[in-house]
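Exercise 7 asks you to align residues with tokens for two separate proteins.
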Amino acid sequence: MSKDMIEATDFRDAMSLLTTAVNVVTTKGSSGIHGFTASAVCSVTDTPPTLLVCMNQTSRSHAHFLENKTLSVNVLGAHHEPISNAFASKLSSEERFKQGVWTQLATGAPVLEDALVSFDCEIQDIQEVGTHSVFMCRVVAIKHAVSQGGTDESLVYFNRAYHQVGQIEIA
């Protein structure tokens, strides 16, 4: 087995070919309201319902997520590309949350009203791995979007570009 190190750029290039769902992850609490666009989100277990969310430690909102200890994962539909871009940009938190209509569930973390699905979570454990924090999040509430006539398509990221996945029902 080779002990050569894999270059970070080679790893990022390879990972660009792993299709991922696009999510906006949000928090609100004593540290304020914040959010970021994330693709590093996945299911851990259904008993108890738990998600894993990865966040770069250099993110300007990282400390706020640590302090608030809650988050919501909002799974974006194809029509949410502008919201994804806003939450990935250098816009202020106030400007970011002007995109879309927001509500809340159990934790108070912002939930995008028309997200395909939103997972409202309490951060149970945090591990630091390299440049990122890995949040283990217990899901305390789930909100599904009301279907808009069968046009639910997911926004995904592949090969450094947005794409749409899903079916459009034709009547």
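Second protein for Exercise 7:
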Amino acid sequence: MYDRRQFLRILTAFAPATVITLLGARSLPEKPLTVRSKDGTRIAFECQGSGPALLLVHGGMGDHSRWERVLPAFSARFRVCAMDRRGHGQSGDAQEYSFEREFEDVAAVADSLNPPVSVIGHSMGGKIALRFAHDHFEKVDKLVVVDMALRAYPADETILAA
């Protein structure tokens, strides 16, 4: 598990020198965007900045706003997009839940950003990002997974199986 300093070192690899100075800044994202996932579910995300695409996938709780404090740092170097996972924030949901749909959701957002994209996933979002990267290797430039328990849930077998 990473402590705060280790996490900041990881972030600094993506946005050197700006992480420390901009961590407290509030982001002003562009207009929310949406894509349709493979099953038709609407997936929302917000972007800011310009440059290579960086996709942020939040954990099991919350929504894209979990990344609010780091968006300014990343946007100094990337077109950074923070998505709302299905059933979270402004994204839609389906009648039946499946982790497979979550992987497809990340693929839909990544496709809209003109892959390859770099991806950072936190906690459950890290597991989803890891499986997305495995299933769609050609769409991924770099992958960072933060604070991901390897086998905390029975469903992890589905997520990590590959």
